[in-house]
Amino acid sequence: MVLLKRFRVDRANNNTPILSKREIDEYARAVLADYKPELLRRPGIIDHEHFLESYCRLKVIVLDICSDDPDQPVLGITAFKKIKIKVFDRENGRVEEITIPARSVVLNSIIAEPEEMECVARFSGVHEGGHSLTQWHVFTGETIDGKSFDPDYDWEDIYPAVFCRREHIESIKAPKQNWSAEDWREHHADYFGGALTMPNDTFIPFIRNLLREHGYYRDAITMGRDEDWDILAHDLLPEAINEAYGVSKTAARIKLRTSGFVRGILRYNMPVMI
After folding, report:
1. Helix (H, G, I), strand (E, B) or coil at 247
2. 169 with 76: CB under 8 angstroms?
3. pTM for the whole thing?
4. Residues 6 or more apart from 7 whose CB is under 8 A from it?
5. pLDDT at position 273, please?
6. Model pLDDT for residues 134-160, shown as the tens digit of each residue
């Protein structure tokens, strides 16, 4: 396992990592080179459960996670230490509290079981992997391989788990100066998810080739100037990314923007595709 090294932390906020996009991209590349280097040579679909279990050494559990906000269900949980959560017991038709062992990722059955939600489950799993690989020390005081991170840090004042709601995964929110430490940790995990599922080594040449195939010879599409190019950026490219990398069209659109291939605002009345 490749560990995240030589990074700055916010000591006033539970040693939350201070990471740039470039640093996360470089770390995700190092992880892929160690885990499955073929994913850096050609577009491919990562097996999120295998990655979590064999590389991150985490137990993957699928449950009906109960949420206090039906509009923002919890899609994934990373349990750094042993915790208790509420789940729905289908067999008996009731809510119960169960214990989740340490070093576990819980995926909500609403994304893990339906075939049509496979792309969201994949990204959610890798997002949780991002929490584990970049933030283990925040919630345990140790690195993910069990070594002491900061002897003076009292990690026991933070709950040893993250509960990732729909708004945290495949998030379109842009970073802001007034973000909390939790906001930044979610942002880092989500950007890591995009960097691991769609690594720049293959993603950049893949998109450049697609643009040329469609007769577009500039570096980026500026939305709102031409309807045909808007359709290419909003629908055709995300569809190709979905097929090549097994991510949702939402995740694909975010990656197109963060990698600089698409900018501007969609002005035409187009249907929103998930």
Report:
1. coil
2. yes
3. 0.92
4. 17, 18, 19, 23
5. 42
6. 999 999 998 888 888 877 787 778 999
Phi-psi region at 224: left, alpha or beta (left = phi > 0; alpha = psi -120 to 50): left
CA distance 140 to 91: 35
Q: Which of 76, 123, 132 is nearest to 245 (CA)?
A: 123
* Residue whose C-alpha is closest to residue 106's, from 135, 139, 128, 133: 128
Long-range contacts of 140-143 (CB under 8 A, 24+ apart): 140/80, 140/81, 143/3
Residue 267 pLDDT? 56
Q: Is residue 199 within 8 Å of 28, Cβ to Cβ?
A: yes
Contacts of 98 (CB under 8 A, 6+ apart): 63, 84, 85, 87
Question: b/e per residue, 225-254, with b = 16+ CB within 10 A?
Answer: eeeebbebbbeebbebbbebbbbbbbbbbb
In the predicted model, residues of the chain with pLDDT beneath 50 are 271-274
Question: E strands of the chain, at which residues?
Answer: 8-10, 16-18, 59-63, 74-79, 83-89, 94-100, 104-108, 161-165, 221-223, 262-264
Predicted local distance difference test score (pLDDT) of residue 42: 97
**Partners of 177 in the β-ladder:** none
Query: In the numeric block, which tokens belong to residue 264?
Result: 């501007």
**Residue written as tokens 């345990």?**
140
**Cβ contact 111:124 at 8 Å:** yes
Q: If 0-12 CB within 10 Å is exposed, 13-18 middle and 19+ buried, where does residue 197 land?
A: buried
DSSP secondary-structure letter at 65?
A: B
